Every structure is written in C-alpha cells, then in structure tokens.
C-alpha cells in the first residue's frame, strides 16, 4: 500500500507566511521521517527567531481586515475549507499515517474529526452575539459586544496532527483572529497540507501563518511569540511542564492562554457494570492511536468481585490486536512516534513489574524486522500504587489493572493525581452514576462510554491538566474579549 498522497502539492516543504511559501530565513532544514521504518519523507524549514518575527508581522498586518470581514463571510470561507478537506480526505489520511504511524483507517477517521471542527465553527461564526443590559439609571443604554483578541499563537502536538490544528485554527478564524502556528516537529506535513487547502479555499494572505522548527530550535522560535505584545493569545496542547513555562513566559504581556496539558485518566469498573461493554469501552479509549492520546486511560481500577473475569475478557481482546505499519491493512496498532516514546513505555512496564506487577499479555517490543518503534499491546495486573505508570502518562498501549474494594476507596485513588483531564467509569447503578460523576476531579467524564470526543462537546481539563475549552459552543470564548458599551444622556 502506498501512503503518498495522489495530490503531490499537498506535501509541502516550506513555511507559509503572508500568503507565500518560504524557506527558513537562514535556509536550515530538518528531516521528517516515517516512524514505521525511519525512512525519510522530506525536509522542512528549521525556522528561527527571524521567521517567527515575520509570521507575527504578517498576522498583525492582516488582523484589521480579517476582523472587519463579516462573520457570515468568515463562516463561508471556513465552509469552503471544510469541503476541500472532505474532498481530499483520502490523501490527508495517508499523510497522517505516513508521518504519525497510525493505521490508515484511523488516519482517515482523524481527517473527518478535524473537518468536523471546521464545519462546527463555520456555523458558530454567525452566532457571535452580545447582550443588552438593563440600565441602572434612566437615560442610559448598556450592552456588551464580543471582539477577537487579536493575533493568536497556536502550538500543536504530534499525536493528532490534523485534528489538533483544525480544533485551534477554526475557532480563531471564526472569531476574527489571525494566527501564527507551529506544528509538532515529528508531524508537520499534515498541518502544512491543511494550510495548503485553506489557501485554496481563499484565506487572505497573512491570516494564517505557519512555521516549522526542530525540537532544538523550537524554544528560540516560540520565545519570540511569548515576548511580543502583538501576540495576544497562546493556544497549546502538550505536556504540563511546557504549559507551565508558557504561562510564566506569557505573564509579562498578560496573554490569554488555552492550555490542554497532561492527563492521567482513571477508568473504573464497578461490580455492577456490564463487563462486556466496559471491555469494549476500554479497547476504544485505551488502544486508539496505540494509546498515544491525552485522554486514554492510564490507570484501570476494577472492583475485586469482577477483577478476574474482566481481566480475562480484556486479555483475550488485547492479545488479538494486530501490530504493524499503516501499509498493512490488518494493522490495528501502529508504531510509536519515536525511540524516546518506546523507551518510556518499556521503562514503565519494567518499573511496574519491579513493584509487584504481573504481565498478562505483551510487555515487550515486537516485529524488530519492521523497525524499532513497535511495542506489543500490554495488560498488567497488581502493580503497586507507587509505580511510575500511576503518576506519569505512559502514552502507549499499556493497560495496568488495579483492584479496589469500595466506591470511596476508588474515588480517592482516582483523584490522587495533580492531573484532571478525563475520567471514565462503568456502572449500572443510577445513584452511583451521579455520585461518581460528581466526585471525579476531571474536566471530562465518560459514563459507560469510552469514546467521548466530539466537536459539539467542550474539551479540556482541570488542575494541572490546564484550562480553557476547545470545541462546542464554548470554543469561541477564549478567542474573544467582551467589551462593555455604555451610552448616557439619552433623556
């Protein structure tokens, strides 16, 4: 199976600034490789401070015109972009799988997920509304209007290279903002292809600007955006340590921040749950994208009475998963993104075993003849609560099972983390459902459901998982200011 797009112009190897495709100012590049076999795909600009500055200047110059564009016209442009994404779904899905490694069916599905955000915010653009306020004194009119914040800096992760940039760019454009963007160094090509389609849809020059940078060069590039007062908002998805750095560095210019950071999701199976449904839900939530998602379960708590039965059902399903490259139509789990990811996963497994855990299936690399980045889907049992995988995101296909006795005990364990992005639980007891949903300290709760993401629902966390919400009717809020207007002397 060939993963190269049939439209050759979708593989871009330049930045896009002020409506032009450009090399880095100093001509530097870095290579983008396929994680399945480490083969080179292409090279993209390794941008620096001067490229970051040029992107800001372009976005600032375009802001006044884009802000003045009627909301309906902005929505219509987004609809044209949405139509082009759908028309090129197959090519974009191949590109996702080529640079990220996920199975082709998941790559195609991610493109549809990305398109759903563009469509949603195309429609939301015309629903930007203010309020009339009852005047406090006679002869006065009081109202609010909502205005775009200005230039937005978007920094996206590698695990969903189409969905994450669409989820950030679409509301920014709908709100009337212009933007500068930096895709993850591992997966810049999908983002560049989406910007190529936005250009084709007619986005004016300077409204969207995207620059690439290697891991080593990224701090120098992003620091320019952090220091510049013309950048009024940062939208970032990634690790909590980086999010904290962005928050600290944004303080001098008091930028707005949307931070979707680390997760440590609990998945709870009570003894009154439908076990088959719980296994189905865990397979969807844990092993999608090879476990490389911020909302995938990291700690699976199963009540004593049903622990062995649940474990047996889960092991049978996990052991049957097919591991391989996206070019294999039977593959259900692709390669991990890079060697660092593999090393962390294997370290977590070894640490769990050292702390009393048992490997029920998996637990090692697989298919060495294909490449070094493949890890067998793994189920562990009975590791200690001090295991690293209880406190750090594993970000891989590892499902650790822990026993619990009471509802109170499992709620305490589930909330015993600085993170609070997603949580899941399965129960058929209606009273318990509402007690547990209220008690979980997370921004997202899946109740008898493992697939919770939707363009119509707010996505985001609490505690050290960040703040701000993406998607849904709330998704425009972080890209807008509320302005209060007061007119007096009307009598």
Automatic annotation (TrEMBL):
Residue spans crossing the bilayer: none
GO MF, one example: succinate-semialdehyde dehydrogenase (NAD+) activity
Keyword presence, DNA-binding: no
Biological processes, Gene Ontology terms: gamma-aminobutyric acid catabolic process
Catalytic residue positions: 260
Cross-referenced PANTHER family: SUCCINATE-SEMIALDEHYDE DEHYDROGENASE, MITOCHONDRIAL
Protein name in UniProt: Succinate-semialdehyde dehydrogenase (NADP(+))
Gene name per UniProt: gabD
């Amino acid at each position: 199976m060939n993963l190269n797009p049939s439209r050759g112009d979708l593989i871009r190897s330049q930045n896009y600034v002020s409506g032009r495709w450009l090399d880095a100012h100093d001509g530097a590049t870095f290579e983008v490789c396929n994680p399945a076999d480490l083969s080179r795909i292409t090279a993209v600009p390794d941008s620096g401070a001067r490229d970051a500055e040029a992107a800001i200047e372009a976005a600032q110059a375009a802001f006044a015109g884009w802000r003045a564009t009627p909301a309906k016209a902005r929505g219509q442009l987004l609809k044209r972009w949405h139509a082009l994404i759908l028309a090129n779904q197959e090519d974009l899905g191949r590109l996702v799988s080529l640079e990220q490694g996920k199975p082709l069916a998941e790559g195609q599905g991610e493109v549809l997920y990305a398109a759903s955000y563009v469509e949603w915010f195309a429609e939301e653009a015309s629903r930007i509304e203010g309020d009339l306020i009852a005047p406090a004194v006679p002869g006065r009119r009081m109202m609010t209007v909502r205005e775009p914040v200005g230039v937005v800096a978007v920094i996206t992760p590698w695990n969903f290279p189409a969905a994450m940039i669409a989820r950030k760019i679409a509301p920014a454009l709908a709100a009337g903002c212009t933007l500068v963007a930096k895709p993850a160094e591992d997966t810049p090509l999908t983002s560049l292809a989406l910007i190529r389609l936005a250009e084709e849809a007619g986005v004016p020059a300077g409204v969207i600007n995207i620059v690439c940078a290697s891991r080593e060069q990224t701090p120098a590039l992003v620091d320019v955006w952090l220091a510049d007062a013309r950048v009024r908002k940062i939208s970032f998805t990634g690790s909590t340590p980086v999010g904290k750095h962005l928050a600290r560095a944004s303080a001098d210019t008091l930028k707005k921040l949307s931070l979707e950071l680390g997760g440590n999701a609990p998945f709870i199976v009570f003894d009154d749950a439908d076990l088959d449904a719980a296994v189905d839900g865990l397979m969807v939530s844990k092993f999608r994208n090879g476990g490389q998602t911020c909302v995938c379960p990291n700690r699976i708590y199963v009540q004593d009475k049903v622990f062995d039965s649940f474990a047996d059902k889960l092991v049978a399903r996990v052991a049957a998963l097919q591991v391989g490259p996206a070019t294999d139509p039977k593959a259900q789990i692709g390669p991990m993104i890079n060697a660092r990811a593999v090393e962390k996963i294997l370290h977590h497994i070894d640490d769990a075993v050292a702390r009393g855990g048992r490997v029920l299936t998996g637990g090692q690399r697989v298919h060495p003849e294909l490449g070094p980045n493949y890890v067998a889907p793994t189920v562990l049992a009975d590791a200690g609560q001090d295991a690293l995988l209880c406190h750090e995101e594993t970000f891989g296909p590892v499902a650790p099972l822990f026993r619990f006795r009471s509802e109170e005990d499992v709620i305490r364990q589930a909330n015993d983390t600085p993170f609070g992005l997603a949580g899941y639980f399965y129960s058929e007891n209606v009273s318990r459902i509402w007690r547990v949903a209220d008690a979980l300290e997370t921004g997202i709760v899946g109740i008898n459901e493992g697939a919770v993401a939707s363009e119509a629902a707010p996505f985001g966390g609490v505690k050290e998982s960040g703040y701000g919400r993406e998607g849904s009717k709330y998704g425009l809020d972080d890209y807008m200011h509320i302005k209060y207007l007061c007119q007096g002397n009307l009598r």
